[in-house]
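Q: For a teaching handout, I want to show students what a protein-ligand complex looks like in token form. Below are the inputs, and the small molecule is adenosine monophosphate. Please produce the holo structure.
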Amino acid sequence: MSPDTQDMDLVFFGIQGSGKGTQAKRLAEDSDYYIFETGGELRKVAASGSELGNTVKEYVESGRLVPFEITMQMVRKAVMAQLNGQPILFDGMPRDEDQMVEFDSIMEEAGRDFRCIHIVLDRDEAVERIKGRAKIEGRADDADMEKVNRRMDTFEEKTMPVIERYKEAGLVVEIDGSQSEEEVYAQLKEAIEYAENISN
Ligand code: AMP
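A: Here is the structure, written as tokens, with adenosine monophosphate included.
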């Protein structure tokens, strides 16, 4: 990746288990992106022990979307703090249409441009991967299949329409997430070069 193709922010989409988080972390290690992992940031708030943290914890642990105001205030703060020219890679944001409207407005306010990458994976395969990940990472929201299914329902019902809207705007590049981690990563790097050349 050449430095001049890194000016654009990226928004990663993918069903839970699609490898989105793993790929985002790899890319952040290999490049200049500042990774904003929404779920991870919310888990940090949840661990703080504050009143806000306890509220967030209830949502995260049950696999429900954290309320709009809490989430979007956190995103706004993170975007506004990142005005040093470093590109941002958003993982897990926006997740529904209300968040999309607010996200678009924050990005416009901050003068930031972005492109989207969707790592596409069949739900059944995603479920199998999550079961494996739960054993390794010990995340409470991965271990309970009812919660996993709830998060996947949310992805299909609320996040897919967001991806469709961005797709209609010509901002999305899709990657086949059923390939090996290496193959997905190679395609991802190509997709970024391509995505950054899509003009508005
Ligand atoms: P993830 O690791 O992306 O599956 O996120 C874990 C949990 O964090 C989700 O089940 C939600 O409770 C919360 N979360 C992550 N991203 C968002 C978001 N954009 N809006 C609201 N809640 C979120």
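A: Two things your students might notice: Residues 1-5 have pLDDT under 50 and may be disordered. Residues 145-168 form the longest helix (24 residues).
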